[in-house]
Amino acid sequence: MKGFIKGFISGLSPKERKLLYITLSFVFFALFDKLIIRSIFNEVHSVEEKIKSQLTLIKKDLLILKYKKKIMEEDKLYSIFYTKKGLVPEELMATFLSEVEQLAKASEITLTNISPISVEEKRRYTQYKLIIECESNMENLINFIYAVNNAKKPIWVGSYEFSPKNREKYEVKCVLSIYKIILIPGRVNQTSQES
C-alpha cells in the first residue's frame, strides 16, 4: 500500500502534486472541523445556554431576595397589628382590656367601669371596641387620651363625653369609646391573593 501511494505520487507532475496536497489539506481540515472543532463549539454553545438559563434564575432569585428584605421590614413594621397564633377572641379582648388599664394607671385616671362592647370581623381585620367610664382631673384625662392615640399598638379613642364632677378641682367624669384593630395574617394573605 505504501509503495502504491509513493508510486502514484511520484507519477504526478509537480502541479498535480501541489493540487493533491492542497486537496488533501482541505479534506483534512474539513474532517478536523466536522469531527473536533464543531463538537467543541456545540458543547461550548450548550454550556453557554445553560449558563444563560442559570443566570436568569439567579437574577429572579436575587430580585426575590431584594424584595424579601423589604417584605420582612414591612412585616416587622406591621407586626403590632397581627395577632399571636392560637389566641381566641376572648383572649384578645382580655389583652386589649389590660392594655387600656395599664395606660389608665400610667395616666393616673380612675376607671369606674370598663365594658367590652363588640368584636366586629371585617374583611382583612378584626375590630374590638370598649366603652370605659372614668374619673380624673382634666389634665390626666387629656394625657390618657393622648397616650391611647399615640400608643405603639393600633388603638385609638373613637368618641368621648365629658361631664363635670368637681368644678374646683377640675375633675370630670368621662365616657370613652376605645377601638383596637388586629390583622389576622392568614386572612390578609388570602384576600391579597384573591385581589
Could you list some keywords that capture this structure?
195 residues; alpha+beta; 2 domains; 4-stranded antiparallel β-sheet; 5 helices; rod-shaped; disordered C terminus
Brief synopsis:
By secondary structure, the chain is an alpha+beta fold. It is 59% helix and 26% strand. The protein has a 4-stranded antiparallel β-sheet.
According to CATH, what is the topology of the largest domain? Alpha-Beta Plaits
Radius of gyration: 42 Å
What is the total number of structural domains? 2
Structural class: alpha+beta
What would CATH call the class of the largest domain? Alpha Beta
Number of strands: 4
Span between termini: 83 Å
Which strand-content bin applies to the residues? Answer: 25-35%
Specify the helix fraction band: 55-70%
Do you know the CATH architecture of the largest domain? 2-Layer Sandwich
Spatial sequence of strands, sheet with the most strands: 1-2-4-3
Approximate shape = rod-shaped
Look at the structure and name the CATH superfamily of the largest domain. Answer: Ribosomal protein S6/Translation elongation factor EF1B
List the secondary-structure elements in sequence, H or E. Answer: HHHEEHEEH
Helical segment count: 5
